[in-house]
Amino acid sequence: MKHFQARSSDTPWGLVCKVWFDVQLHMGRRANEVAAAGLKVSAFCPHGASGAARLLTCPTLQRACLSTSAARWAPAVTQPAPAFKGTAVHNGEFKEVSLSDFKGSWSFLTKIIAFSDKASEFHDINCEVVGVSVDSHFTHLAWTNTPRKAGGLGGIHIPLLADLTKQISRDYGVLLENPGIALRGLFIIDPNGVVKHMSVNDLPVGRSVEETLRLVRAFQFVETHGEVCPASWTPHSPTIKPTPEGSKDYFEKVN
């Protein structure tokens, strides 16, 4: 899991990793967790609603996703990103890294090599990238000192943060507790420490660096201009002003 910070003109955005959500699991084994969180079942799912379809309409559920970890809530888009702190390997040295280091800039968490190779492009849009792994910082140092052709990471251009206790992965809802591994997650965090985007993949499938760059640019555009970026938006393509007239103008342009 890596962490990236994207920046607008003077502030950062962040990306964080994966979330797996299982409604039926929540309704069954996690009923006690809901109660422990201070939520009555009737409040969590009004009017005795049952089943996935009705549960998804509950306001409380719309504000929070369930973690893959026992008794944990994953972060939700529009909500504050969980704080983290730990030892990272950066430029061949150990350094302490925390979420507060990226306050005022965009950031994100994700996997390693592909995003490291694009680190300069993220820096160009005022975005910082941080990788997170459940291995130790000593293991990370060994990885970075091993050439890629030999199965290592080689030289990377982003901090690689150790999550040996698995607390960061647990707090971000990407930890599979029984095997003790983290899914492929990506979280974008804005300059105020708020999650703007999150995605989680199963282990066999990675993510698109280009799509991540597009998302960061889109969130920065919305922050600056207050307009809506439609599907497949790219810089310099039409956007939608959030008014009836603005929407009409947009659809006249693209149709």
Describe this structure in words.
One of its GO terms (cellular component) is mitochondrion. One of its GO terms (biological process) is cell redox homeostasis. It catalyses: a hydroperoxide + [thioredoxin]-dithiol = an alcohol + [thioredoxin]-disulfide + H2O. The chain has 255 residues and is of the alpha+beta class. The chain folds into two domains: 2-19 and 78-251, 3-Layer(aba) Sandwich (Glutaredoxin), CATH 3.40.30; 23-66, no CATH class. It has eleven helices and 13 strands. The chain has helices spanning 23-27, 31-36, 41-44, 51-55, 59-63, 113-117, 119-124, 137-144, 167-171, 209-225, 244-254, and strands at residues 2-7, 12-17, 65-66, 73-74, 85-90, 93-98, 107-110, 127-133, 160-162, 175-176, 181-182, 184-189, 195-201. Strands 1, 2, 5, 6, 7, 8, 9, 12 and 13 form a nine-stranded mixed sheet that branches. The longest helix has 17 residues, at 209-225.
SSE topology sketch:
Blueprint: E1 2-7, E2 12-17, H1 23-27, H2 31-36, H3 41-44, H4 51-55, H5 59-63, E3 65-66, E4 73-74, E5 85-90, E6 93-98, E7 107-110, H6 113-117, H7 119-124, E8 127-133, H8 137-144, E9 160-162, H9 167-171, E10 175-176, E11 181-182, E12 184-189, E13 195-201, H10 209-225, H11 244-254
Organism: Myripristis murdjan
Family: Belongs to the peroxiredoxin family. AhpC/Prx1 subfamily.
Catalytic activity: a hydroperoxide + [thioredoxin]-dithiol = an alcohol + [thioredoxin]-disulfide + H2O
